[in-house]
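Suppose you are handed a protein chain with no further information: no name, no annotation, nothing but its sequence. What can you learn? This example shows the usual starting point.
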Amino acid sequence: MKIKLEMKKFRLFLIDFIERMKQEGEETSEAYKILIRYVKGDRVSKEECDKFKEQMIDVIKILGIGIPYMLIPGSSLLLALVVSIAKKYKINILPSSFKDIMDK
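A reasonable first move is to predict its three-dimensional structure. Written in structure tokens, the prediction is:
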């Protein structure tokens, strides 16, 4: 019974993670459109510039977390540890779509 509960928790975590990554993908796509407009010389509002900057920070965070996770064996355990330590010191290392995880 305990295994079923853990599997259910893991499945819910995975669904939530995929949804958050989809959100990051959509935000990155929006940032790309803003960048293209800027490069073409079109007017870009301050709000759009702020949105672009925030998303580029999220992209850097994803790369900073994702690359070691894929390259270093056992890094999934390290990632959980690093996130919990960062949370303890109120350092946000996760992209904005994961903000509520840091708030818990």
